[in-house]
What does this fold into?
Amino acid sequence: MAKLLSSEHMHATIRRYYDGCNEADAAKMIGCFTPDAVHYFPPGTKSAPWRGAQTIANKWVWCVDNLGSRWTLDRVLCQPDTDEAVVEWTHWRTKDGSYLRGDEWYVFDRESGLITEIRAYFAAAWDSDVKHGEIPGFDYAGRGYPLTPPD
It folds into this structure.
């Protein structure tokens, strides 16, 4: 019988993945995924879905290098009994001063404890003419969400 993943393990794996994204550390990101992991995105996202741990890592390294991408992990909820987690994040594009907020649904492989699937949902459609992609009228500052990208 497969072991039950802990909330702490799931949260630490997601945190390590985000750290790898911010550090443009492909090996750190790859270490968070099963080799055949899939990252799904909303319609209109170029080249989506991203299939395979190596592809996912390479795409985020490209974003850091070309867009100045940085991410904050704003909220995390883990549900070990179903091997799932959900997060809220902010994707900061520091080269053009824009950002996009959204959610991701994670599915973990119980045997390895690694991420096998991510489904991303955006607070607003990614539009290069919109500098702040977030839910209109929601009090991000008042709720303690980050208002600047990490260093």
